[in-house]
Design goal:
There is one protein chain. The chain is of the alpha/beta class and 447 residues long. It has a domain at 135-202 and 216-264 and 282-385: Glycoside hydrolase/deacetylase (TIM Barrel, Alpha-Beta Barrel). Helix content is 31%, strand content 15%. It contains 15 helices and 15 strands. It has helices at 53-56, 76-85, 116-119, 155-163, 174-179, 181-189, 209-227, 230-233, 249-254, 269-277, 304-319, 337-353, 360-363, 380-385, 412-427, and strands at residues 3-6, 16-18, 105-108, 135-136, 141-149, 169-172, 193-196, 258-260, 280-282, 287-288, 327-333, 356-358, 389-395, 401-407, 440-442. The strands form 5 sheets. Strands 4, 5, 6, 7, 10, 11 and 12 form a 7-stranded mixed sheet that branches. The protein has a two-stranded antiparallel ribbon with strand order 1-3. The chain has a two-stranded antiparallel sheet with strand order 2-15. Strand 10 (287-288), helix 11 (304-319) and strand 11 (327-333) form a beta-alpha-beta unit. Helix 7 crosses helix 10 (269-277) and helix 11 (304-319) runs parallel beside helix 12 (337-353). The protein is globular and about 50 Å long. The relative contact order is 0.20. The structure holds 2-acetamido-2-deoxy-beta-D-glucopyranose (6 copies). One 2-acetamido-2-deoxy-beta-D-glucopyranose is lined by residues 151-153, 176, 335-337, 441-442.
Length: 447
């Protein structure tokens, strides 16, 4: 077998800077209430850390934020789950290190592992794993995805999406959700699709299989508790990781409606098999805005004009008919104000260039995007004709039922209803205080 030394040429280091905020309490110290989550326009106060009991109470059951995850020693559910699936994971060795240094990795030219980082392979070679999703099957359709949230300054961006009545797919990092749970809730309340972007945002192919499992498992179980569904909204502690009860690789996946996106696109068939066993399907992209590069130490020469050109390249291709038979997926980020402003700036041009801009689940006619709960999405047809509302019913702490709706056709009444729901949730706990979690800011290059 021919071998070549594979060097990762486009290395991006996920540099995580710890900025531990002081832990302050009730008496005379800064008192940021959970209503901070709705402050708009963006500003420093939006990013003041707060304490939210459902997350604060559960923090000990989850891995340390921004550190590569491992199965918690006391977590017998996770251990049992891992024991039940590990026999299905292909015997492929880890590659490089978790910061994406693949120096010295010798990888055969025929790409036996379908390693996307090396070859952009999206069709697994191992048996029983579905192909990655990297396009939208519907013509002239754009799958609209944002990685790395929730970001504390996202309100202006989310307000913009709301004003355009546009839903997107948000691939959230578990560590960010721990820090910004109410911002994560806003994505759900606004009717966006929330998917998994791992716990700590490291290179998955470098990890031991058990740790890849943990990166996905704790993010998914966190999702069950906090992002999509009832527990956090009910103020329940989320101590029980989700038991997805998936006995076999073979049936795990094909019926699953859940997606994850691997940081840096770094997957091979070993990572895919682990995700598959957890009911998660891989989403990649065809067009990379590379918007994250601006202002990062790892790509000091990237300018805003470069990012404009990346967006424009996809728009030009659309205008030339490149998506007339099948649509595409863009990768952009909810990483910082620049990436979000760039998304806002290009939205009208994307609207003009594509017939439809949709969340990934909608583009695939997946109407129940989460494993549990009552969230219902429209089919593609329903979404584009505005004939069905997204709806989810959840019960808040005082047992009243809060119903949020977001129509796919513009309706001021419904937007009011949505923001009303957020206020209700907050005011039910406005006295609630701050800051227990040390807050880490993910500072650099991220994809
Ligand atoms: C969120 O965005 C702000 C503004 O651009 C940025 O300073 C901050 O680092 C981001 N937070 C995270 C966790 O990436
Ligand atoms: C979505 O469902 C419609 C029928 O409701 C069908 O015509 C279309 O091909 C489906 N698209 C995808 C991508 O499954
Ligand atoms: C779904 O909604 C029904 C009522 O509409 C409620 O009884 C049920 O508890 C909800 N389930 C979840 C998981 O929220
Ligand atoms: C949500 O609740 C409303 C009534 O409160 C009901 O009409 C609707 O069908 C429910 N939606 C779901 C998805 O359960
Ligand atoms: C319960 O929450 C609802 C909003 O969902 C609010 O209107 C109502 O006043 C609350 N009831 C109590 C007793 O707090
Ligand atoms: C949902 C939620 O966070 N509920 C909390 C509201 O505040 C009271 C008092 O601080 C807590 O006891 C609840 O757990």
């Amino acid at each position: 077998m021919a071998s070549s030394t594979y060097r990762h040429r486009d290395m991006k280091t996920a540099l995580c800077v710890l900025s531990a905020f002081a832990v302050l309490g009730v008496n005379g110290l800064p008192d940021f209430s959970v209503t901070d989550a709705t402050i708009s326009p963006p500003g420093e106060k939006e990013c003041s850390a707060y304490y939210y009991a459902p997350v604060g109470n559960a923090v000990a059951s989850f891995p340390t934020i921004w550190q590569p995850a491992t199965i918690m020693p006391s977590d017998t559910n996770a251990q049992a789950k891992w024991e039940s699936i590990k026999q299905y994971i292909p015997d492929i060795a880890p590659k490089g290190n978790t910061d994406g240094n693949f120096d010295g990795v010798v990888y055969p030219a025929d790409d036996p592992d379908c390693w996307w980082t090396a070859t952009k392979c999206v069709t697994p070679k191992a048996q029983g794993i579905p192909a990655d999703i990297a396009i939208m099957p519907e013509p002239r359709t754009l799958g609209y995805g944002f990685d790395d949230g929730p970001n504390c300054t996202h309100n202006a961006f989310y307000d913009y999406l709301k004003s355009q009545n546009q839903k997107a797919t948000m691939f959230f990092i578990g560590s960010n959700v721990m820090n910004w749970p109410l911002e994560a809730q806003r994505a759900i309340t606004d009717g966006h699709e929330v998917c998994v972007h791992t716990w700590s945002h490291h290179y998955l192919t470098a990890m031991e299989s058990e740790d890849v499992f943990a990166e996905l498992y704790y993010t998914s179980s966190h999702q069950a508790c906090g992002w999509s569904h009832t527990n956090m909204l009910q103020g329940k502690e989320c101590l029980q990781p989700l038991d997805r009860n998936v006995p076999h690789l073979a049936d795990a996946f094909l019926s699953s409606n859940r997606f994850y996106q691997p940081p840096f696109g770094d997957i091979d068939d070993r990572v895919r098999a682990i995700a598959n066993a957890l009911g998660l399907r891989t989403v990649l992209w065809k067009y990379d805005s590379d918007d994250w590069q601006v202002g990062t130490p790892t790509s000091p020469t990237a300018t805003p004009q470069d990012i404009d050109a990346n967006y424009q390249r996809m728009i030009d291709d659309a205008q030339k008919g490149a998506f007339d038979t099948a649509g595409t997926i863009i990768l952009a980020h909810e990483l910082n104000d620049f990436t979000m402003q760039e998304a806002i700036k290009f939205y009208p041009k994307l609207k003009a260039a594509f017939a439809h801009i949709v969340p990934i689940a909608v583009g695939l006619n997946i109407t129940h995007p989460y494993v549990e709960g009552n969230t219902t999405f429209p089919t593609f047809e329903q979404y584009i004709t505005g004939s069905m509302t997204l709806s989810t019913n959840f019960t808040i702490a005082n047992n009243s039922v809060l119903s949020t709706s977001s129509s796919s056709s513009p309706s001021p009444t419904q937007s009011e209803k949505k923001s009303g729901s957020i206020r209700t949730l907050e005011s039910s706990n406005a006295s609630h205080l701050l800051l227990a979690l040390a807050v880490f800011a993910a500072a650099a290059a991220t994809l």
